[in-house]
Design brief:
This protein is 3% helix and 43% strand. Strands 2, 3, 4, 5, 7, 10 and 12 form a seven-stranded antiparallel sheet that branches. Strands 14-13-15-18-19-20 form a six-stranded mixed sheet, with helices on one face.
Length: 477
């Protein structure tokens, strides 16, 4: 009898007993009195090892659980199950179809407790024998192996429980990612299903025991490109999360996960019943792209973005007040032409200018921020940048407010902004949010005014531009 595998939340289930009748053999061959029982609140398989009742038959056949099954492996090559038995021993798994066979071993530590064992078939002897849609397929689970001569005496009559036999591994679009080329995943957002974990199993390929490691995070990292900014893992089973590994190619990568990772930077813990999905810290750099498909909360944010004293263009995915940039900073948002208006803040995903920045700085730090979903556009004439790109024929703004057109080799990094059309203008203009533009001479009416430029430097003979006189913003034409 062949059991069709079902696709579950996190893996391809071959057998879990839940749809089997208690007291039946559950589809297993009856070699070791295979019986479906209730144990620990779940239906599982119970087998009892027996001496070979037919010396002329297959040797030790009553020491294993044997299950015929049919499944589409979908490129997955790791098979796992849970097992419970009294002694510690190497457990042998044979995966067969037709005359082809591959086997792996994993050590069960004993103690009569449930433990999950993993058997990796993507590498190792006869891994080429594993097919996605095999005919005449079955597996054998040998709790005491089949080649050590231990079956006829001390291990006869042992009771073993087996449950949750399944194929595991990360998947994208219904296929195992291990089947993809390196850097094949290029979308801003990648949705991962299946499961992610890492661990070791034992084998004797060379005649001596040794450990063989598997690491889904390393595999997934090899398949995503540096363009991927958001990994959605909410449809996957996640264990031993490795954030630093996944962020190797793009340090700005955000990871939405149903469980916490050991490293929490840029890992958003997903809460299906609470809109306040949260990361303890979001760390960003302007040398890499950024994107988020959801709103979430960040307890702290660090942005590597070199600021120069004077004027800087910025675009950030959260609300920013002027005092959060530096002490004397002013924020100006785009109005029209080459005119910007001073305001007290910039909203999320709105490009702006920060003027009178105190001094050169490499990083900006913020606390308690609501990060907003990345929109399809970050502006039209004044455009924000969330991915490094060419700046050819685009207009940047230098620290003095002068406009500079990008040449053929010019680039612009993330968390900046540019103008697409300046209509021949050479510099930008500012206006106050409430009072508008103000014309003044180089001195105030009472002759006692001190004039400062936007970098905070005293100016004796101001020329055209924006200045601070007696604490007020003025424009000299």
């Amino acid at each position: 009898m062949l059991f069709a595998a079902t696709t579950g939340f996190s893996q391809i289930v071959i057998w879990n007993g839940e749809d089997k009748e208690s007291g039946s053999d559950g589809g297993f061959w009856g070699r070791a009195d295979a019986t479906v029982v209730e144990e620990g609140g779940n239906k599982c398989l119970k087998i009892t090892t027996k001496a070979n009742p037919n010396p002329g038959g297959w040797a030790n056949e009553h020491f294993n659980a044997h299950l015929p099954f049919s499944a589409d492996f979908k490129g997955l090559r790791r098979l796992s199950f849970r097992i419970k038995m009294e002694p510690g021993h190497n457990v042998l798994l044979k995966l067969k179809h037709g005359s082809a066979e591959a086997h792996r071993l994993f050590y069960y530590g004993g103690g009569n407790t449930w433990k999950k064992l993993n058997f990796e078939f993507s590498v190792g002897p006869n891994n080429e024998n594993i097919e996605d849609n095999p005919d005449d397929c079955w597996l054998e689970i040998w709790p005491f192996e089949d080649n050590e001569g231990t079956h006829a005496e001390g291990n006869v009559g042992k009771v073993i429980y087996i449950d949750d036999i399944q194929l595991e591994g990360p998947m994208v679009n219904g296929s195992a990612i291990r089947t993809l080329d390196d850097n094949a995943l290029t979308d801003q957002q990648v949705i991962v299903t299946g499961s992610l974990s890492k661990g070791e199993y034992q084998d004797t390929w060379t005649g001596a025991w040794h450990n063989v490691a598997f690491d889904d995070y390393e595999t997934l990292t090899s398949k995503i490109s540096a363009d991927v900014c958001f990994l959605n893992l909410t449809g996957a089973a996640v264990a031993d999360g490795d954030g630093p590994q996944l962020r190797t190619k793009n340090p700005n990568l955000l990871i939405l996960s149903p469980t916490a990772f050991y490293d929490t930077d840029n890992v958003i813990t997903w809460d299906a019943g609470n809109d306040r999905n949260n990361t303890p810290k979001m760390v960003l750099t302007d040398a890499n792209p950024f994107y988020t498909s959801i709103d979430f909360h960040a307890d702290a944010v660090e942005v590597t973005r070199n600021l120069k004293a004077g004027i800087n263009s910025l675009c950030l995915p959260f609300y920013v007040g002027q005092a959060e940039i530096s002490t004397n900073c002013k924020i100006a948002t785009y109005k029209n032409g080459t005119t910007f208006t001073f305001v007290d803040h910039a909203d999320a995903n709105v490009p702006f200018l920060a003027t009178a920045v105190n001094a050169d700085a490499e990083k900006l730090n913020f606390t308690d921020k609501t990060v907003a979903t990345t929109p399809g556009s970050l502006g039209t004439t004044f455009v924000g940048v969330y991915a490094p790109q060419s700046a050819k024929n685009l207009y940047g703004i230098n620290g003095e407010g002068k406009l500079q057109k990008g040449g053929s080799g010019a680039t612009i990094n993330s968390f900046r902004a540019y103008l697409t059309d300046v209509s021949g203008a050479r510099e930008i203009n500012f206006e106050d949010e409430t009072t508008g533009l103000t014309d003044v001479s180089s001195k105030t009416s009472d002759g006692r005014g001190e004039c400062f430029n936007l970098a905070g430097q005293r100016v004796a003979q101001p020329t055209k531009g924006l200045y601070i006189v007696n604490g007020r913003k003025v424009v000299i034409k």
